[in-house]
Amino acid sequence: MLTKFETKSNRVKGLSFHSKRPWILASLHSGVIQLWDYRMGTLIDRFDEHDGPVRGVHFHKSQPLFVSGGDDYKIKVWNYKLHRCLFTLLGHLDYIRTVQFHHEYPWIVSACDDQTIRVWNWQSRTCISVLTGHNHYVMCASFHPKEDLVVSASLDQTVRVWDIGALRKKTVSPADDILRLSLNPLLPWNCKMLTKFETKSNRVKGLSFHSKRPWILASLHSGVIQLWDYRMGTLIDRFDEHDGPVRGVHFHKSQPLFVSGGDDYKIKVWNYKLHRCLFTLLGHLDYIRTVQFHHEYPWIVSASDDQTIRIWNWQSRTCISVLTGHNHYVMCATFHPKEDLVVSASLDQTVRVWDIGALRKKTVSPADDILRLSQMNSDFFGGVDAVVKYVLEGHDRGVNWASFHPTLPLIVSGADDRQVKIWRMNDTKAWEVDTLRGHMNNVSCVLFHAKQDIIVSNSEDKSIRVWDATKRTGLQTFRREHDRFWILSAHPEMSLLAAGHDSGMIVFKLERERPAFSLSADSLFYVKDRFLRVYEYSTQKDTQLIPIRRPGSNSLNQGPRTLSYSPTENAVLVCSDMDGGSYELYIIPKDSYGRGDTVQEAKRGMGGSAVFVARNRFAVLEKSSNQVLVKNLKNEIVKKSVLPIATDAIFYAGTGNLLCRADDRVVIFDLQQRILLGDLLTPFVRYVVWSQDMESVALLSKHSIIIADKKLVHRCTLHETIRVKSGAWDDNGVFIYTTLTHIKYCLPNGDSGIIKTLEVPVYITKIYGNTIFCLDRDGKNRPIIIDSTEYVFKLSLLRKRYDQVMSMIRNSELCGQAMIAYLQQKGFPQVALYFVKDERTRFNLALESGNIEKAVESAKKIDEKDYWYRLGVEALRQGNTGIVEYAYQRTKNFERLSFHYLITGNVDKLSKMMKIAEVKNDVMGQFHDALYLGDVQERVKILENAGHLPLAYITASVHGLHDIANRLAVELGDNLPSLPEGKKASLLMPPSPVLCAGDWPLLMVSKGIFEGGLDDAGRSEEENYEEAADADWGEALDIGEVENMQNGDVSMVVEEEDVHEETEGGWDLEDLDLPPDTDTPRTAPNARSSVFIAPNPGMPVSQIWVQKSSLAAEHAAAGNFDTAMRLLNRQLGIKNFSPLRSLFMDLHMGSHTYLRALSLVPVISVAVERGWSESASPNVRGPPALVFNFSQLEDKLSAGYKATTAGKFSEALRHFRAILQTIPLIVVESRREVDEIKELIIIVKEYVLGLQMELKRKELTDDAVRQQELAAYFTHCKLQLPHRRLALLNAMTVCYKAQNLSTAAHFARELLETNPAAETQAKKARQVLQAAERNMRDVTPLNYDFRNPFVVCGSTYTPIYRGQKDVTCPYCSTHFVPSQQGELCTVCDLAVVGADASGLLSSPSQIR
Fold first, then answer.
1. If you placed Cys at 1050, which of 110, 465, 535, 919 could pair as Cys (CB 3.0 to 4.6 Å)?
2. What is the torsion angle, in degrees rounded to the nearest 10, for the CA atoms of residue 1197, residue 1200, residue 1205 and residue 1207?
3. pTM given for the model
4. What are the residue boundaries of the Coatomer alpha subunit C-terminal domain, all occurrences included (predicted)?
């Protein structure tokens, strides 16, 4: 044998040569697929997405594709140019042995251990035939190279040859292809389980749905019982009084109770409202497997490993019957939903049906109940209360579960023999009907679906299987990778199922429940029970039109998905997922209205979506070629158009236009001109709702709503935590939508709110005024009356229709904290005032809106010091001196009051304040008042009384009061202070006030629309004008004969004042010693309409930036470094912010400019916005201008490359690390640039790691082995080709010098494969190869195996081989050994290794 090439690897299970290139694919038992160049002897690529061994692999003859099949039951089709898996084909139920492409048609044949061969169309990604006949594993299957034949070999000792000529004819004539599914009953149904909720927890052993609320109980192997809200996805409560696993749990149908049974032999009855266990039932002698409440009587049935079933009365808390007969563990026991029967399953390989009719009679006639205790002994050995009606034998191993059909006399059971059996019973006997085979391990649980003719089972083979109960064939399999299933539960009212497995549970549905419907003027066309129906809104009349399905073809998720109607032609397009996507075209005869029995022959065709685009034209999406086929009503193609994006669904967007959906965007495509009319980045869009005038569109995703105009110009985005289900536009241009739990509204600016809470989900079809018409999940039309006042009010505010706002305020009951907060947020606190009853909230709103009169009213009612103080501050800001004075009086703030009288020039009241200070014995206050008044004698007197004689003497002397000075000189004697010589004293007098009386002048501002109008509501004209003209502010301090009072008696003054006000009420205006009217400017009666408060300052731009953005760079630019750091920590796991300090400062300084106004005025800071233009609206703030951009990083990258080439490794390392530390603060616009940034992180990370290793190597002068290892690892960094050549040359040189010739030869071969441009490099490599061939060995062993793929630890610089555990940096994705968990990443020097992070956010498009 002339060996050309040989590899060393894991066991090779599949091989395939490329037809043109010197390549070979090898699929390994380890799950890896290797692509080798057998001529060069090099590994080109590796692919490792399979879980488990890959047994089959095959190259396509002409396309850059190959196919693989493995033990994970998956067939994967790969593009080796793109280095990724394109898609996965699912359908096989066991290990896949071989796969092969057809040489001509787009087919793949696969052989599997599930005893079938499948033929797939890889273009449409569907299974087109299942070849059955082998009765053991099928080991291989392959196409004939020329003829329409397939050969297969099986462990059933046969080889079979299959004729697939008919399949070829079908493929050649695609018109017949729509008949394929109906002609081939062996095809698997293409249904999906729609997961609604999933938990991660300990193993779940028991499940129970609540009949009314969206709750589910899960009992865990750890002993805890969890109560979940599966709609909200939240844990409501947990109960953990059991010792050991809890295997059974069940909700009561009507009471707030549930029952549980566990391995502690106890049955506990709980009240979930009281959050506690009510009582415990004892009697079982071993583990309790299941517990269940009776639907009518106060009974509980329990099954136990003590081989008995017990029935308990939970009201009397006693055991009323013991059912004995099983001779092994009883795994489950359940009541019949209607009859007096119990079914039980046991490991004794039997299913037993028990008649408990006598027990019911005993319960109904309580007089006989006194005999019960005496009969307990006979009951224990199988008394007369419950007798065995049938014993069902047929399973070969222990039976784990049995359950009744909800209406038919059927039982289904699952056992350790991996079989599901269906049993039928009548009044006298029961017998086995059929056996369902397919599970690969013990069947854990099985039950009938409540609303469909299907059986659902789960097993320890990690799968849930769905079976057709009438045909007794498998429909679908749902698998988990690592978790065995233990329990199933069905919702008593809805089509929900739940399954418990090793690591939690899932709540799911088997098919969509949204009815297909289409709106046309006053009519709604919709599908219900295989009939097309029409509902007229005006008359609320519902009419059946035509049947739309052949009998027997309605299966899981194969029902109508969308419906499109052409009113002029009276034609309907019905689309479904059948056959990978198909449509049916019906022309409704006019005489069929009201009859509904006319059988229409539909025109059918294949297509992912189909919609009418004109009166007699409809468009069909052909996914395989990504084009739209425009057809006429004869189903003939009249036009083809290639779509501009990879489209997976099309929607109507106006006559001749289509809205095309991709995964992350939608576009509007003009079919006539073949141009794009609009493009918008969105999450995955599920539904599209146009307004009646086609000017606005709502794009509904799973958890968001995007509102745009007809050109897809974005208006607003709304996010929901609960799934969005449907929506429609009302006459006002408000979008009304439903979630699972609510009807909500969305205004044109993105504001939203709740209109109504829903009991069950509904789908809105049309809105007439305050009536919402909707379809429920049963296909029934329901009108719902709503109150639209709230959103109409908000819409009027938004559109500035203030007359409408005024009318609604006067005539409607709008209230609530949400409305108040909304009005505050939108800048209408003055309007919010009129919805508030709480005085504290009114006071805050009045201050915010500057309405000082309303604030005074509220402050008087609250009468607390803090509120008077805040009122004084606001009044001072407005210059309303009367209210300032009154507020200071109410708070007894004498110091502020004195200063207030000083600056307003009120000398008389200042004198009174000095008297009050004297009464209060407030020396400093008295002195200050004397100082303010310029009263020198009073100051001398105060100083003398306080004992400060020297100060009193100096004051009297300086001011020329010689008599007093001489008297004080005598008292001072020798302690007489000396006065400074040569200094001329001047009298210190208080300055003259600018304005001596009245309020300060205010800016003249025209009053808002709401001010006068709302104030006048409910008041007479007379009251209005009287208060405006005569009300003055400020209340005198009733000092009285203060000279005659003793010091400290000021409290008498205060008390008298309070009493006086309480008895008289109102303001004591007559006590104020005001100047004459001629000197005081009086407010004119009509002044209220012309003079108003100054406008409030707006929100700072930096605050707007922070509120509108989730990008750390924009928070830093706004100066909010704290939130920027929190964002970076959450998104990238960054903990070390020292390297970012200077970048943060640069961002902040660079996004602001500074202007000097006047010499004494502070510098004005002006925000610089990104993309600002003169045409931009002044009210719309753009994002900040940033000093860092992507092009700067490209320049640094080039500098880093040059430094690396020149061998300046330290300088290059600085450049590359600077790039890594700048990237978190870069903002780009498009998704493409985001991808480029992510690529740049990987590139730079590889260089930083490699350069660090090279610098480390240069430091190690005395460790030759470590030097070689580091040089070798450097070659595995993903560098640019010139740098990789240099790294290989370096590693080759180092190893050659150390006499490790074999390793040096490897690097020489690698270097030659890169085709080095420099001849010196190639020559050196060839010389090393020649020298090594003479002595191919290594002197010293290295920790380096180039055959085994690895990554290098960023800290220890050691290899982490495939399969070894590692942790990564959440930012730069550098790999580390597990011991580095929690340490700072040595590559980026920013993030914590192994930290949780949500990922890099660098563009607003990611947030949208």
1. 919
2. -170
3. 0.54
4. 1007-1408
